[in-house]
Amino acid sequence: MLELRHLRTLQAIDDAGSLVEAAERLHVTQSALSHQLKDLEHRLGLELIVRRTRPVRFTTAGARLLALARQILPLVKKTETELKRLSAGDSGRLHIAIECHSCFQWLMPALDRFREDWPEVELDLSAAFGFEPLTALTRGDLDMVVTSDPVDDPAVCYLPLFRYELVLAVARDSEWAARRFIEPGALAEQTLITYPVERERLDVFTAFLDPAGMAPGSVRTAELTPMMVQLVAAGRGVAALPNWALTEYLDLGLVNSVRLGEEGVWRTLYAAVRQGDQAVPFIQDFMETAEALCFEHLSGIRQVSRPA
């Protein structure tokens, strides 16, 4: 009567807070998810959730099954990992380079979890700002590159992690603080604070300013996100950052955020691996762990639509 997919569905509903978002996480349509839930309720003869509440509220029966899911699914995941290690051998190498200064927020917990599950895999991490990481990937010096700038290369496979919105951090007393969005030309008289990397690797240029043929009044750099936020709060400029990287500073009331353009600038973060390596068990497991932790801890991100 009960299947693992039912438990995964209930856990996704609880984690997401709604059927719509749960369906996105499970990569199914909302109607398919609703049908599965109704079918389970029919089999059991019990209602499992109180509909039309947000977040979704579970009935007593639903809460019992949710508790079971929280207990069983981690054990299933652990056993699956162990079986993968038995199948592929428990050793290997995963050398990762990141092109994203803000990614440490979610990457460190993912690496900690990965080390627990794959203790014999040699793990290494570097920042990809002083060299060409994709060249190093195809050459075999690296095994994964975290990037938002995919390059068409048949030797590289891009595994999507999540979509995020690039937003502009502005001082709370700025005239822009109450705006819903700004156009590229508005930055022509502003100081843009960026990470110290080439502009070709900065989304604010490649996805917002350059297509409009615009440039900021001036550019200054800061090594760390907290430094950038403090400079913005002090009125020394503005900074384009991922929405999830700004969440804690918005909650603290240090800065405000404004959309870049009326529709916003949405980017996808990928893990690039060599073509064929996407089937390696420990790389698959790392992707599953990283994606799960991202949606557990990061605000404002979206699931990447995948082909049916």
From TrEMBL:
Source taxonomy: Bacteria, Pseudomonadati, Pseudomonadota, Gammaproteobacteria, Oceanospirillales
Protein's recorded name: HTH-type transcriptional regulator MetR
Family: Belongs to the LysR transcriptional regulatory family.
Record-linked InterPro entries: LysR_HTH_N (IPR000847), LysR_subst-bd (IPR005119), MetR_PBP2 (IPR037406), WH-like_DNA-bd_sf (IPR036388), WH_DNA-bd_sf (IPR036390)
Pfam families cross-referenced by the UniProt entry: HTH_1 (PF00126), LysR_substrate (PF03466)
Domain of life: Bacteria
Keywords in alphabetical order: Amino-acid biosynthesis, Cytoplasm, DNA-binding, Methionine biosynthesis, Transcription, Transcription regulation
The keyword Cell inner membrane appears for this protein: no
Presence of the UniProt keyword Transcription regulation in the record: yes
HTH lysR-type domain sequence ranges: 2-59
Cellular compartments annotated: Cytoplasm
